[in-house]
């Protein structure tokens, strides 16, 4: 690590320092360090996972699996693409992926905001539990599968089976939806929805009109067992 | 879990360095597959009447010079290039005659591949150990298909390692697990196709070769594969002049592609591509599910 001056920045190079050492640094009190830069991630897994304090983390390159997973309080910028499970189980804070994210981005996130500037992969926001996700591009099939709470805003198109078996999470899509999953339905946008989308787009710094989005939510027909449905939904 | 790697060189000057560029790709996939590894490398085809056969024997004390002498005595002019447990035979004799003769005279020697352009190496052990055992860094050629294996459905043996081959100049590696390999196998066996291992991947490899032999082009054969092959897969395939990549409709297994003016590189994960020249300016993308990607030499 290279501490810059008496102030606030730390720089790590993953070519020289292991993921474990960097994560251990991030898991301990940081003193006056408020900004951490991680160079040359080169697709490494688990970069900056489990951070539990307010610090800015800048990752300069592409990351592998589970980057910034379980994040609490930190603001993480990934200047590259993210592998599967970026921001999985995030509790709070902000994770900003400048490139694309692979499958299962934001899986089970309980809180915080995940921004994906380009496309999200398949199963984006699977089992979302209260976090918010804003995707600048498209999302793949089975996005928001069984999502329980939170919001997924998609500025592009959505793949197949969007919102399959959705609980109380809400999805907003600007582009086309290839198909809706079981029990997901398009509902009218209320003023509340427009305000929510506008606020999330504003937080992500994406200029788009909230009026252009559709609201997708649960039809709540799967909440109770229906013996007459014959396993067909 | 398994790792796949593929590299196709567009700039002819770089073909000398195919092996050097590939070795860190293969080693980068060690955590995805640490029990076996293999490599199919394609180079300029030998003359039309000749064929190359990649041969393998598990016994490290096997007497290759003796085999060389017997082959000469039986088939006349040929060359045998020996590398540890492995040898490349080049001959004008019919591959089927060599294979039949080997089965009766040297049953411990396995034919890993047949073709004018393909050489195949596969073995058990860590990818780095296999790369060094067969001097992968010295490989030259136009394109290659590699694999690191973490066995889930069949034993850890050299036979069950990837790449799989069938017919001539055709190979396939697989990350995933198939749901219907046995029904595919039964169907193909009715057409007289013989299997050599109990790995699910062999069914996919022979199924596609069967369609190609039936006159279909690779794209058409792969369209049929999406209908007939059930399960999870990222398949990377090599022919004499092509690499092709498909992922199952659920995209259960990862893949990433980096393309520059000089090469196309494919891997399960970006960490196997990070060392490649000009990777920072490469077009990096994640292949979509149920789509056919192919690149020609």
Account of the 3D structure:
- The complex is a heterodimer of chains A (233) and B (297).
- Chain A has 233 residues and is mainly beta.
- Helices cover 9% and strands 24% of the residues of chain A.
- Chain A has helices spanning 19-26, 191-204; strands at residues 2-4, 9-13, 35-39, 56-60, 75-78, 94-97, 113-116, 129-135, 149-154, 170-173, 184-187, 214-218.
- The mean pLDDT of chain A is 95.
- Chain B is of the alpha+beta class and 297 residues long.
- Chain B has two domains: 2-43 and 125-296, 4-Layer Sandwich (Glutamine Phosphoribosylpyrophosphate, subunit 1, domain 1), CATH 3.60.20; 46-116, 2-Layer Sandwich (Alpha-Beta Plaits).
- Chain B has seven helices and 16 strands.
- In chain B, the strands form three sheets. A seven-stranded antiparallel β-sheet of chain B has the order 7-2-8-1-14-13-15, covered by helices on one side. A five-stranded antiparallel β-sheet of chain B has the order 9-10-11-12-16, with helices on one face.
- At the A-B interface, loops of A face loops of B.
Write out key terms for the chains shown.
heterodimer, A: 12 strands, 24% strand, elongated, B: Glutamine Phosphoribosylpyrophosphate, subunit 1, domain 1, Alpha-Beta Plaits, seven-stranded antiparallel sheet, five-stranded antiparallel sheet, 7 helices, 16 strands
The level 1 CATH classification of chain A is Mainly Beta
Report the count of strand segments of chain B: 16
H/I helix tally of chain B: 7
Number of domains of chain A: 1
Q: Hey, roughly how much beta strand do the residues of chain B contain?
A: 25-35%
Shape of chain A: elongated
Arrangement of strands in the largest sheet of chain A: 1-2-3-4-5-6-7-8-9-10-12-11
Largest interface: A-B, 18 and 17 residues
- Assigned CATH architecture of chain A: 3 Solenoid
C-alpha Rg of chain B, in Å? 18 Å
Number of helices of chain A: 2
As a whole number of angstroms, the C-alpha radius of gyration of chain A is: 18 Å
Quickly name the level 1 CATH class of the largest domain in chain B: Alpha Beta
Q: CATH homologous superfamily of chain A - what is it?
A: Glutamate synthase, alpha subunit, C-terminal domain
- Helix- and strand-based class of chain A? mainly beta
* Helix and strand element order of chain A: EEHEEEEEEEEEHE
Structural class of chain B: alpha+beta
């Amino acid at each position: 690590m290279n501490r810059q001056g008496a102030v606030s920045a730390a720089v790590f190079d993953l070519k020289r320092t292991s993921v474990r050492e960097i994560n251990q640094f991030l898991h301990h009190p940081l003193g006056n360090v408020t900004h951490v830069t991680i160079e040359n991630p080169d697709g490494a897994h688990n970069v900056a996972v489990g951070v539990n304090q307010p610090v800015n983390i800048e990752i300069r390159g592409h990351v592998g699996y589970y980057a910034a997973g379980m994040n609490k309080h930190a603001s993480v910028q990934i200047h590259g693409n993210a592998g599967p499970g970026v921001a999985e189980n995030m509790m709070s804070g902000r994770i900003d992926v400048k490139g694309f994210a692979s499958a299962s981005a934001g899986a089970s996130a309980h809180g915080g905001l995940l921004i994906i500037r380009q496309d999200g992969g398949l199963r984006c926001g699977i089992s979302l539990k209260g976090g918010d996700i804003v995707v600048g591009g498209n999302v793949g099939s089975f996005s928001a599968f069984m999502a329980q709470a939170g919001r997924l805003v998609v500025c592009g198109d959505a793949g197949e089976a969007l919102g399959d078996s959705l609980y109380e999470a809400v999805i907003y899509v600007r582009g086309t939806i290839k198909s809706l999953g079981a029990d997901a339905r398009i509902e009218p946008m209320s003023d509340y929805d427009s305000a929510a989308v506008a606020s999330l787009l504003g937080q992500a710094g994406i200029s788009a009109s909230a009026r252009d989005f559709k609201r997708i939510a649960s039809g709540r027909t799967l909440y109770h067992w229906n013996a007459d449905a014959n396993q067909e939904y | 879990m398994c790792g796949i790697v593929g590299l196709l060189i567009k700039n002819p000057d770089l073909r000398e360095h195919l092996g050097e560029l590939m070795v860190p790709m293969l080693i980068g996939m060690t955590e995805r597959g640490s029990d076996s590894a293999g490599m199919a490398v394609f180079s300029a085809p030998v003359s039309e009447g000749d064929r190359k056969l990649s041969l393998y024997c598990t016994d490290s004390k096997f007497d290759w010079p003796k085999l060389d002498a017997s082959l000469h005595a039986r088939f006349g002019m040929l060359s045998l290039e020996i590398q540890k447990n492995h040898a490349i035979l080049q001959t004008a004799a019919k591959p089927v005659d060599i294979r039949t003769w080997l089965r009766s005279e040297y049953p411990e020697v396995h034919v890993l591949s047949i073709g004018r352009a393909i050489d195949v190496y596969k073995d058990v052990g860590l990818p780095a150990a296999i790369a060094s055992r067969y001097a992968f860094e010295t490989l030259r050629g136009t394109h290659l298909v590699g694999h690191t294996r973490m066995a889930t459905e069949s034993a850890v043996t050299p036979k069950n390692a990837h790449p799989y081959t069938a017919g001539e100049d055709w190979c396939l590696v697989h990350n995933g697990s198939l749901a219907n390999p046995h029904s595919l196998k039964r169907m193909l066996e009715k057409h007289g196709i013989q299997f050599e291992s109990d790995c699910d991947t062999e069914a996919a490899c022979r199924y596609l070769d069967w369609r190609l032999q039936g006159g279909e082009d690779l794209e058409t054969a792969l369209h049929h594969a999406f209908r007939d092959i059930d399960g999870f897969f990222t398949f990377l395939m090599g022919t004499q002049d092509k690499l092709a990549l498909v992922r199952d409709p659920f995209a259960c297994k990862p893949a990433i592609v980096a393309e520059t003016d000089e090469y196309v590189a494919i891997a399960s994960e970006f960490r196997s591509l990070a060392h490649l020249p000009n990777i920072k300016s490469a077009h990096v993308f994640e292949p979509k599910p149920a789509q056919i990607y192919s690149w020609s030499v």
